Amino acid sequence: MAPVLTSPLVSTQWLADHLGADELVVLDASVHTAGTGFQTAWHSGQDAHEQRGHVPGARFADLIDAFSTPDAPVPFTRPGAERFEAAAGQLGVTNTSTVVVYDDGDGEWSARLWWIFRSFGFDSVAVLDGGFTKWRDEGRPVRVGALNTPPAATRPDTGAFLAGEERALWADHDRVTRAVSGEEPASLVFAAPWSALGNDHPPIVPGSTPITADTLLDPETNTFLRGAELERAFAEVIGADEIVTYCGVGSAACVDALALTVLGHDRVKVYDGSLADWWRHDDRALTS
Q1: pLDDT tens digits for 242-288?
Q2: Which residue blocks in the chain are alpha helix, DSSP H?
Q3: Which of the chain's termini has less CB crowding within 10 Å, N or C?
């Protein structure tokens, strides 16, 4: 029987207690970033997963390719249902699995994959609070090398993974434009650290409230703030009927979306493509 989740976040102790349990799938969603603004480049974290180590039994989830739409106009555009099913199934996920996702950074990529799973109706998924950083710093076991045994769902004795109907957890350019104009109100939350934008860039979305993802984490433990501290971080927007989070490409935005979910806000959307998409419609961006 798969472990039961009671929160969008699980602790390192919870994972240690359940590691090796039937139908538990642990996924490393690490992506490494270089550069800022329009010069940003993204690199797979798979080499680090294999060479520097990972949680024992964890499988590497490729957010750059497998869990995105590579030929889309902007990076990290979410996958369609068939692509998502294929990517998840190849990693051993079934419809009765419990999935725990982590990354080796500040949680933006694990939060992104968590949001993708939830958007296709899969709720038995959580993010490892503190990620691989906390796991490693606590001296917990680390495995080096690639996974040698095939994931369960790729074997012929297991069923295929089927995505549910896509939920309305994403915003697009038109939705954000309606929020800016006031036609369809929503609080717009900018989640990217300012340093990620570089020094010369077009404006962010008008009317946004900056609540950057890094301010939602305890710098000593890399874990999410809780309770009153987290509520204070979102004090300017928490009363809104709907909140749309965004960043550069839609990764840090998922950290804010995860934190809002922890607080119980159930009307949150992530602007897929985020500024990479918004700037496509901005003449100043197109000539940069």
Answers
A1: 999 999 999 999 999 999 999 999 999 999 999 999 999 875 443 33
A2: 12-18, 46-51, 81-90, 108-119, 131-137, 173-181, 227-233, 252-262, 274-278, 283-286
A3: N
